[in-house]
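Re: that chain you flagged

S.,

Sorry for the slow reply, it's been a week of failed gels. I finally had a moment to sit down with the sequence you sent. For the record, here it is as I used it:
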Amino acid sequence: MTRDAFEALDRLAGGLGTALLALATVAGWVVVGATCLVGIGLPMVQPMLSVTRSVAERERARLGRWGEPVVSPYPAARPAGGWRSDPATRRDLMWLAAHSTLGLLLGLLGIALPIMGVRDASFPLWWHLLPEGESGSSLGIPVHTWPGVMVVGVSGFAWLAVSMLCGRPFARLQSLPGRRLLSPHPSVDLSERVARLTATRAGALAAHAAEL
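Prediction finished late last night. Pasting the structure tokens below so you have them in one place:
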């Protein structure tokens, strides 16, 4: 179970990284959208689509390390109507909104819970070193007596237990939007999906070989 907890923590930390990238990209879209209202942001739409796809590809690579590869849905040639008419673009933007909110929240919780647990579980060992009036639990509750200190210590083990129990569900939930939205649209031909999956796996193997 401890190994599963560390694996879940690793997955959540990786998801937090891509969630922060997604949040920054959303902020970029907000700026571009605002400037489009006055007619000066239109030239930035295409670069922002490229940034969005780059972040989405990073998430696909992350998901592929922890399960079935997520096939890149992008066609080799630009669609007749441009990238804005590609169903993958809309799905990327939907994922961006989900991952920059839910994915970010789950990543922060997944990282914060074990940190709070270790901090509070070890609190009885070092609380007396804190300046008077500044000792307290991870939640900011002031503690000035030994009974209170012991309660904080016990709560630390409770946080660790919650972290171990919730880590895997949090990681699965964090990955769900990516697996649902970053895969090819149902309208994509099956043979094309197989070809893309083969290319994705070949790329992953090449990257792994390069790392070795």
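What I noticed first: The helical segments are 2-36, 45-65, 87-121, 123-126, 146-181, 190-211.

Talk soon,
D.
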